[in-house]
Structure formats: structure tokens, C-alpha cells
Amino acid sequence: MIPRALALIILLAACAEGHVISMSNGDLRVSANRGIYELRMPLYEIQHVTGPEKALFENIRFSSRGVAGRIAEKKCGEDQKDASFRCTVIYEWPEPVEELEVVCTFHSVTVPNHVHLLRAYRDDKTDQAVFDFSQTKAQVRFRPPTAFELFVVGWGSGFARAFSSGAAVLFLGCLALAARSRRELVLITAMFLAGEVLSALIVPRTPWNPQPRFVEAALALTVAYLAVEILTLPQAGQRWAVSFVLGGFHGLSYALYLTSTGYDALAVLSGMAIAEILAVLIFALLLSRGAKIFSAIAPVAHRVASFCLLIVGLAWFAWRLRS
């Protein structure tokens, strides 16, 4: 079991995505049977995309009564003022639009955890939808969603965001690796979640607006720091305090997510907390069973896994500084 757990950690390290925060915005204004869609996406999100003006619009579709909107006009270009890629597209449908079904798979051409926030307007009515790898379809009814609908969507989004990248799950595995007893596992997980929640709730209410690249670099260092703690200070006390501080850095990504999407914080953070607790428990179970079955190699495997985490964290940090 230890070799399996170690292999899982190494696999997650190899699959870790540098972008843990990837977002774009779009406004769709509908009048009769025409709609004007304005897309704004950071340039660094599409540096690797060939022909973004074509690739992006192959991955978003607006349909009314089962008929996809026809692109009548499209204009795309780079805006160097805010380092963004912008497109203005005019869609036409055979009949006046009452409702729209939107399919958006931008995550398939940008990065796997990309989030697209769509705001739709028709006369004095508005609606919005959020798309990511866990939600690629939405109905735009040009009416405010109910409180229950918002909570369910926000909860599911928070749950999915916890697994939005290999790097996010990798740190949860690092927490399980850092725990030296069941009691300590509960304590450091609880303090990590407390740090995340407080950061996600407090930062949006301050003048500080951390940039996504800063947050990503900080998250990379949290992985490396906890690995150093495990390797060099195996008997160190108050590891719960370290987990709390590192949780604060991880909460910055949720602060940005909540600010950008407007989702209910309670819904998103409760979904996140349940997902992360489940992930930590699974890692802890794998490591515990493996330590019993392969007791002879358990200490070596533990140090190898910690060293892998250190290398990945430092490499990820260096990559974010260069990009």
C-alpha cells in the first residue's frame, strides 16, 4: 500500500497544474433575435493556444429553442493596456430569444481548471452562469436564480474546486503525510481549513487585491515549505500552527474565486471543506494501511514522498516566476 500511496503522490506531482486560478469573463446582450457577446480573457491563459479567435469559439455555443446561434460578425484582438484578449461577436437566431442553452468548454483549450463567468442581459432582465470542468452547460432564463439554486450550484462548485488541479490535491496529500498521529491529523486538517476559510472571507473585505500569479507562487511555496518541515523537523511541535498559516495562503485562491463569481461564500466554502476532508482521509487511510503492511520500507518511502513534494513545490514556484 505504501508503494501505491507513494505512486499516487508522484503521479499528482507530475500532473500538477501551474494555474490554480484561471478565469475569463463574458457579457452577452440579447435583443430580439440578435446577441452581442464580449469576451475578455487574460493573455497568459492563451499563450499556448493556436488561433484563439477560432479555438475559443469552437468551445462555446449559444442555442435558442435547440438552434445554435449563427456568428454574423466577429472581431478579436489583444488589449495591451490590461494584457487581455478581447473578442466582440454578434450572434443571430431565426426567432426572438426567450431562453438560451449555453455550452462552454474553455477549460479544454486553456487549462483544465479554467472558470468562465458569463453575464447575460435581455431588456431589463439579467442572469449569469459559471462554467468550469465540472459544469459545462447552463440554462440562461434571464431571471434571477432562486436562493436554493444559488446554494446548490455554489456548493457543487466549491466541492469541485478542491480537485481543480493536481497541485490542489497534492497539498492535501502533503497534510496527511505531515500528520504523525490521528489526533494530529484531525488538528492540522481543522487548522488548515480554518486558515482557508478566514482568508477567503477576510481578504475580499480589505483593500488588498492579490494578483493570481502571486497567489499561485505562494501556493507553490506552501507545498515546498511543508515538505521541508517533514524532512528536516520530523519531531517539531505545533505543526497545527504551520497548517493554519499555510491554509491562509490557500484561502487566497478562494477569495479570488468568490470575488469573481459572486457565489455565496457559505455554499462554496462548505463544499470545499467537505471535499478536502474526504481527500485528506483517503490519503491518510492509504498511508496508514501501507505503513502496517510495508513497515520495513515505510520510513524510506515517507522521506522519498516528502522529497518529491519539495522538488515539485520549488519547480512550480520557479515556473510561475518565469511565466
Secondary-structure blueprint:
Elements: H1 2-15, E1 22-31, E2 34-42, H2 52-55, E3 60-64, E4 67-68, E5 70-79, E6 84-92, E7 100-104, E8 114-122, E9 125-131, E10 137-140, H3 147-161, H4 166-178, H5 182-202, H6 212-232, H7 239-261, H8 265-293, H9 298-322
Parallel strand pairs: 1-8
Antiparallel strand pairs: 1-2, 2-6, 3-4, 3-7, 5-6, 7-10, 8-9
Helix pairs in contact: 1-4, 1-8, 1-9, 3-8, 4-6, 4-8, 5-7, 5-8, 6-7, 6-9
* Beta-strand proportion: 15-25%
Mean pLDDT, nearest integer? 82
Cα-based radius of gyration, to the nearest Å: 22 Å
H/I helix tally = 9
Roughly how much helix do the residues carry, as a percent range?
40-55%
From the spread of the alpha carbons, the general shape counts as elongated
Gap between N and C termini, in Å?
A: 37 Å
- What string gives the helices and strands in order? HEEHEEEEEEEEHHHHHHH
Number of domains: 2
Largest sheet: 6 strands, mixed
Backbone structural class:
alpha+beta
Model description:
This protein is of the alpha+beta class. It is built from nine helices and ten strands. It has a six-stranded mixed beta sheet with strand order 5-6-2-1-8-9, with no helix packed on it. A four-stranded antiparallel beta sheet has the order 4-3-7-10, with no helix packed on it. The longest helix is centred in the C-terminal third of the chain and has 29 residues, at 265-293. The two termini are 37 Å apart. Residues 1-19 have low confidence and may be disordered.
